[in-house]
């Protein structure tokens, strides 16, 4: 386990060198002191480009920042999640004071209330003013800070849309607070909870009780995920939980997988093309990113149309391909398939032929287009 942990740290450190990392003191009026913060910007980040990024706020930045930053950089490199900005807050000397809450009502008091306001009223506005931060924000915490990030759920208009809650040392009333609040959310909220079989006994009990309550919530706006890892310790569980949380929260951003194709697309009773459009509209709605539809995803929808022999959907797929890749053969290929499968061979032949002036893409070549046109010509004597 130790060797695996060291390897992961090496990978995270290597990835961080590729991204832009800034360490700086941040003076807080709320705290009455300066705190060191760590900021990682995406590779090739340019503040002049009109593009926004999700923001991760990482508590326990002394040891959690590198784990989150490395994973975010890795997943975004492979386009399994959007590029993101990460800010970590060092708390090694102030953790207990930062997380202080009342024994009577389990809510932040004194230094804990000040830290709560520091994050929401100072740090996040600073990041928004200085960098191209989008609407989607994720809070990450471990142990005491995992409990603390739940307080932001209780605000009337929460500043975070995603919560990565790892081995939380829950305040006495936190289970009830979180359960009640997540039942009522009217906007999409992502909540990831994790523990380990080797965790501290009180944490295991509190996390299992919270999971039981959250699993019973029926709210279409809540996207809830839970993991109980085998053998990991309380201190190593973040290395297991963080990549899993990113996979879960940003699952809609992934290219269409074999499971998504088999379990969702092939079982559709409606248009698979509409499914594809809605997938990318969801990405835009959640993350503010106008992501170009991947060729891989066009191919997945093409395969589903072929398998289910619902060839009428090739027309819509062709029109969508023309919008997404107007200078390529993709749109003409699908439209020609539509005409060919729906009894219009002459129109199919001409559409295959007319694509010759466009760029090749995704295995669709000019030779392939001409071969298909020639096959129709030979069959029908045109």
Can you tag this structure with a few keywords?
382 residues, Rossmann fold, Serine Threonine Protein Phosphatase 5, Tetratricopeptide repeat, 8-stranded mixed β-sheet, 16% strand
Summarize the structure in short.
The chain is 49% helix and 16% strand. It is an alpha/beta fold and 382 residues long.
Question: What does this molecule look like?
Answer:
By secondary structure, the protein is of the alpha/beta class. It folds into 2 domains: 2-253, Alpha/Beta hydrolase fold, catalytic domain (Rossmann fold, 3-Layer(aba) Sandwich); 283-380, Tetratricopeptide repeat domain (Serine Threonine Protein Phosphatase 5, Tetratricopeptide repeat, Alpha Horseshoe), CATH 1.25.40. It is 49% helix and 16% strand. It contains 15 helices and 8 strands. Helix 1 crosses helix 2 (61-77), helix 2 (61-77) crosses helix 8 (237-249) and helix 6 (174-183) packs parallel to helix 7. The radius of gyration is 25 Å and the shape is elongated. Residues 1-17 have low confidence and may be disordered.
């Amino acid at each position: 386990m130790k060797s695996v942990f060291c390897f992961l740290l090496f990978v995270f450190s290597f990835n961080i060198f590729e991204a832009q990392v800034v360490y700086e003191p941040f003076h807080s009026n709320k705290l009455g002191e300066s705190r060191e913060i760590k900021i990682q910007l995406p590779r090739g980040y340019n503040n002049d480009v009109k593009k926004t990024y999700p923001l991760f706020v990482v508590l326990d930045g002394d040891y959690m920042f590198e784990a989150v930053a490395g994973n975010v950089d890795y997943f975004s490199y492979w386009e399994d999640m959007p590029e993101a900005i990460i800010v970590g807050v060092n708390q090694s000397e102030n953790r207990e004071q930062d997380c202080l809450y009342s024994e009577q009502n389990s809510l932040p008091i004194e230094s804990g209330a000040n830290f709560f306001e520091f994050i929401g009223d100072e740090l996040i506005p600073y990041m928004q003013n200085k960098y191209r931060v989008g609407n989607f924000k994720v809070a990450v915490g471990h142990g005491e800070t995992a409990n603390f990030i739940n307080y932001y759920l209780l605000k009337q208009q929460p500043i975070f849309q995603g919560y990565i809650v790892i081995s939380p040392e829950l305040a006495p009333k936190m289970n009830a607070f979180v359960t009640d609040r997540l039942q009522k959310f009217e906007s999409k909220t992502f909540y990831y909870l994790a523990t380990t079989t080797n965790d501290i006994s009180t944490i295991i009990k509190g996390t299992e009780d919270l999971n039981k309550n959250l699993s019973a919530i029926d709210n279409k706006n809540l996207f809830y995920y839970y993991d109980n890892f085998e053998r990991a310790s309380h201190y190593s569980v973040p290395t297991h939980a963080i990549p899993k949380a990113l996979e879960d929260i940003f699952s809609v951003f992934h290219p269409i997988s074999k499971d998504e194709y088999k379990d969702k697309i092939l079982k559709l009773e409606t248009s698979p093309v509409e499914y594809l459009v809605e997938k990318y509209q969801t990405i835009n709605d959640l993350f503010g990113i106008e992501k170009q539809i991947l060729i891989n995803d066009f191919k997945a929808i093409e395969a589903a149309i072929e398998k289910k022999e619902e060839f009428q959907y090739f027309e819509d797929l062709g029109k969508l391909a023309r919008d997404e890749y107007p200078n390529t053969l993709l749109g003409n290929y699908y439209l020609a398939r539509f005409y060919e499968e729906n009894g219009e061979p002459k129109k199919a032949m001409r559409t295959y032929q007319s694509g010759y002036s466009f760029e090749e893409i995704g295995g669709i070549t000019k030779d392939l287009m001409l071969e298909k046109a020639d096959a129709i010509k030979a069959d029908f004597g045109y």
